[in-house]
Amino acid sequence: MPRFFIMKTLIQLLSLINYVSALGIVISIILVLLKKVIYYPPNTINDAKEKSSKYLSIFGVFLSLTIICTIGSKALIKHDFQRMLKENKITLVEVNGFPFAQEDAADLFIKFEGDPGRFHCESYPGYITFENNELIPIEVIQHCYEENKYIIVSKKYTTDATIGIITTSKFNYIKNKIPFTDQQ
Length: 184
Hints:
Order of helices and strands: HHEEHEEEE
Number of helices: 3
Helix content: 40-55%
Strand order of the largest sheet: 2-1-3-4-5-6
Shape: elongated
Radius of gyration: 23 Å
Distance between the termini: 40 Å
């Protein structure tokens, strides 16, 4: 359990830095635009240009921080997810209210392909339960143009991260189906 709290704290810290950097980007863009719009007397134009260039430098630093924090947090989440798969046995996978037995789920998450980040259609909520009783919420997104391809997204932390694409026909029957519920 301590590893989970360290990962959670690190991912939250990266998310916080990411949000603060995004705010810095917005503020620096506003300041640069204001400097361009405001009239300056001819004798102060050079000072205004220097300040604008400082704001552009700040913008560059914040943009770099945002990109690094986003990529870093998603890589940590993906690494943590794959570590869980290696260290623990899956006992149950449930997608859109449909449970998959341990035998069916055993080979679902073995091979991940890269996700190009597009062609997402319907999505289904779900979770994976491991033998150590840890539960990872996931989202399974159907690929629009390729049959039997599903994108797996980890929802364990505050930041969602795409783990990869799996190819399986086991999820076919959850499409356009309503999960069974008790009716009284």
